[in-house]
Design a protein that fits this description.
single chain; 179 residues; alpha/beta; five-stranded parallel β-sheet; 5 helices; 5 strands; 31% helix; binds flavin mononucleotide
Length: 179
């Protein structure tokens, strides 16, 4: 059965290591007959959550008029969501965290999703990625019925494109085929 896959690519580097892994994952998914769309977050205007409480306490839509509304619609509609981040100071990058915070107004509707995580880092130690993965899990633990279905470790990659030809690229393609 064809699945609707949303890929959230948060690196500020278009064609960077995590973005390339996203493309590989998507290529695999498409070859397996799935529908996959990537949102390159830098192309979108997504402001910080203001913590105003309008959505939580007042039950109102987020008052901010930027691109987060359309991203949220796609997150809610997707069967599987791929979240890709470069590791910055052993945490996720600010663009991804900003997106997560802005799901606040509708996160209860992001339910029963399969989640794939892609992390890229100069460090080649996979264990050192655990803190960043735990941050993703902090988010998904707030979502009803979410399932962690795969992780791609793009480790040992510093320069833009260093990931090319790596085992991680093959794994990303293969994981995409198995969604
Ligand atoms: C601001 C900044 C902080 C970084 N912090 C780390 C770090 O803590 N650990 C690490 O292994 N690599 C770190 N890196 C390297 C990136 O994670 C690495 O270049 C990665 O491949 C970037 O992925 P991208 O090409 O998808 O943007 C950092 C890079 C930048 C620009």
């Amino acid at each position: 059965m064809s699945k609707n896959i949303l890929v959230l690519s948060s690196s500020p580097r278009r064609g960077g290591n995590s973005d390339l892994l996203c493309e590989q994952f998507m290529a695999g998914a498409k070859d397996a007959g799935h529908e996959a769309e990537k949102i390159f977050l830098k192309d979108k205007t997504i402001n910080y959550c203001q913590g105003c409480g309008a959505c939580l306490n007042g039950g109102k839509p987020c008052p901010q008029k930027d691109d987060m509304g359309e991203v949220l619609e796609k997150m809610i509609a997707a069967v599987a969501i791929v979240m890709a981040t470069p590791v910055y100071f052993y945490t996720m990058c600010a663009q991804m965290k900003t997106l997560i915070d802005r799901t606040c107004s509708r996160y209860t509707e992001i339910r029963n999703k399969e989640f794939y995580f892609i992390v890229t880092a100069a460090d080649s130690n996979k264990q050192a990625m655990e803190r960043t993965l735990e941050e993703f899990r902090g988010f998904t633990s707030c979502l009803n019925g979410s399932r962690e279905t795969g992780i791609i470790y793009g480790t040992g990659a510093w320069g833009i494109g260093d990931i090319k030809g790596s085992e991680a690229m093959k794994l990303a393609y293969g994981m995409g085929t198995k969604v």
